[in-house]
Amino acid sequence: MQGRGHGSGRAVQLKLEAIPACKLTDPRIPCRWRSLGVGKTTLIQKASEVLKSSGVPVDGFYTEEVRQAGRRIGFDVVTLSGLRGPLSRVGSEPPLGRQECRVGQYVVDVRSFEQLALPVLKNAGSSSSPGQRVCVIDEIGKMELFSQPFIQAIRHTLSTPGIVVLGTIPVPKGKPLALVEEIRHSPDVTVFSVTKENRNRLLPDIVTCVQSGRK
User: Fold this and answer.
1) Strands 71-79 and 84-90: what pairing?
2) What are phi and psi of 103, to 5 degrees?
3) What pLDDT was estimated at residue 132?
4) Rounded distance, CA 202 to CA 192, Å?
5) Which of 4, 48, 137, 208 is 20 to 30 A from 57 in CA distance terms?
């Protein structure tokens, strides 16, 4: 599901076109969905809350619009533990001495993003808690992929046994993003489609798939 615009295990990818059967036989499930304005962040938050309430260990981060006087001026990265920092802002200049990373009108603050996202992914891979863990990654998109350490951390997380990944990727548009395409076409990925019409109905299906993948 677009928010702005392998190792062992069975993955779940949520996207717009079609909803295939959910076949989960292995423990690791990267779940991803996409489409601007369909409420994917709200859906991922609801799924996280349901999983937490059922005793599932959940950590991760999501991206959230920042608005001013009704106008979107950028995005923040927000961890599930409540930490927040800028991901991008409209027309802002990069800090002195840093290379500009821009997506359309948004300038990406790569360092701020890394300071929040990388520790979350590191903790997910090093947790000593028993059983499968869920790591929320919203999203794996163009802004986030300016960070090479993030790309490395994503690959490591997706290949780590014992981690169920609930994440989002963007709709294909323009030049393909190598990691996104790799994830999208992975044989370990099961795809859900999310729209404004079906997003509420999908919540129990998403939760069930994640819980099934933890068994």
Assistant:
1) antiparallel
2) -125, 105
3) 79
4) 9
5) 4
Q: Do 194 and 14 contact (CB within 8 A), yes or no?
A: yes
H or E element in which residue 151 lies: helix 148-158
How sure is the predictor about 18, in pLDDT bands with cuts at 50, 70 and 90?
A: very low
Q: What value does the mean pLDDT of the chain take?
A: 79
Burial of 132 (0-12, 13-18, 19+ CB in 10 A): buried
Which string of b and e fits 71-90 if b means at least 16 CB within 10 Å? eebbbbbbbbeeeebbbbbe
The answer to whether 10 and 213 have CB atoms below 8 angstroms apart is: yes
Amino acid (one-letter) located at 175: K
State the pLDDT at residue 17: 30
Residue keyed to tokens 């409420």: 39
pTM score, whole prediction: 0.81
Confidence (pLDDT) at 195 = 78
Task: Return the CA Rg of the chain.
Answer: 16
Q: Quick check: 189 and 23 in contact, CB under 8 A? A: no
Tell me the pLDDT tens digit for each residue of 64-95. Answer: 999 999 999 999 999 999 999 999 999 867 66
For residue 190, what pLDDT is reported? 65
Torsion of CA 185, 57, 200, 77, to 10 degrees: -70
